[in-house]
């Protein structure tokens, strides 16, 4: 059996007494797309930050193609090798770009760092083309671009490194719906063209449905449900997953019922990791 | 960003409600002309600043000596012009030293954090606790007269202001996601600091340094007045006030009052320009 592209084994991280990530494991196959869903404070962003190396895990490890990622990069070679394993697109495109650096300059810097022998200019055009930005945007500063355009720049910047895995941390949450759709299409196109794997962190179940093959549901730092996206969304096993699905506004939606269900779930009797498949809907 | 530099309205109230402020323009012009005078002094000074003409001692303004002559018979205008050189060069050294060292220390402390931050922050606080002038007097008493000793001493005394400001700015800046993005991309800490963080915080630090320039000028003039700064014959504004003391007692105040006026005007001008710059930076749309 081939080594999976990305594997997280029993990741743990606590801040004080809060177990932000509590024994999370998952596997992302080569070229696959895995969604991590959960409400606020479920530990999904911390998991993402551990995977990219912005946060260190108290225990457990992240493996890329079977090789464990060191918690701290030593020296230039290791730093660059780490960057080529995993790249990240951040939630807020308004903050994830240096306000003083122009679009082409952002890409040039990265290309110079990772591919010093190659002429960066054709690759810059190629990347901008790939994310659907014209050459006019190349000269622009981030503040002259819209949110969607900025997120495209951030994606181009991540792709410039040619990473094996792209972590998208709520990458479309800050964008309005029509732009969200464009970016999601863009991401789907990129996945068709390149052998990249996606780790999609989101609270939005619609997004998960669009772009992921598999999904894990996190609550209070641990995985409560995992499986193929279509199955999990069609037949959720854990009450928390059902609550998440019910929380999406739809015709006949009753916020009071959701609140009651949430209350019941957080009461001390309910055990967060217990799979209670046959539980009836709360009234 | 706007809370970093405290706004002190003071003279800014003189501004007109809309459009450009005349005070700022006047001060900008003053700064420019003082700097120009210092640069061109040897060519535009009408007399040798050290040529002694005892026959004309304490003479009032005339066509030959527009600002009069001091007690030793030296032309006041020429001494003022050449004095601008030492009077500006000193603060420039202080500001350059304190800015470079302060930014380096502040950035290192904020970026590394942990024990290095504690060490550097406590060390600079120690310097804070020590009055700058006293430190300068101490250094001069050890190393003797000259421009270098007081400049280094004051540079050390001003360093904590810059390093503290830089530290807080870098702390705020490094928490921004774009810094995380560059780290994920594999850029080294040094590259991120030099290429991205420093250019982003530079305007605020430089505005503060401009304000420091005025204060340093005042401090150095004070030291010169006490006879502790520049060597006796060098034309320097603080030194001129010291030399003119006796003339004031004899009823000829011009040679002491003019350098005083120049010190005050230049300090005010640098402060207004610096604060205006700081205000603009604080209001700047990011």
UniProtKB/TrEMBL annotation, chain B:
CDD domains: TM_PBP2. It is a multi-pass membrane protein. It is found in: Cell membrane. It comes from the Bacteria. Gene3D superfamilies: MetI-like (1.10.3720.10). The keyword Transmembrane helix applies. The chain crosses the membrane at residues 21-45, 88-111, 123-141, 254-274. InterPro entries: BP-dependent_transpt_permease, MetI-like, MetI-like_sf, OppC_N. Pfam families: BPD_transp_1, OppC_N. Residues 84-273 form the ABC transmembrane type-1 domain. This is ABC transporter permease.
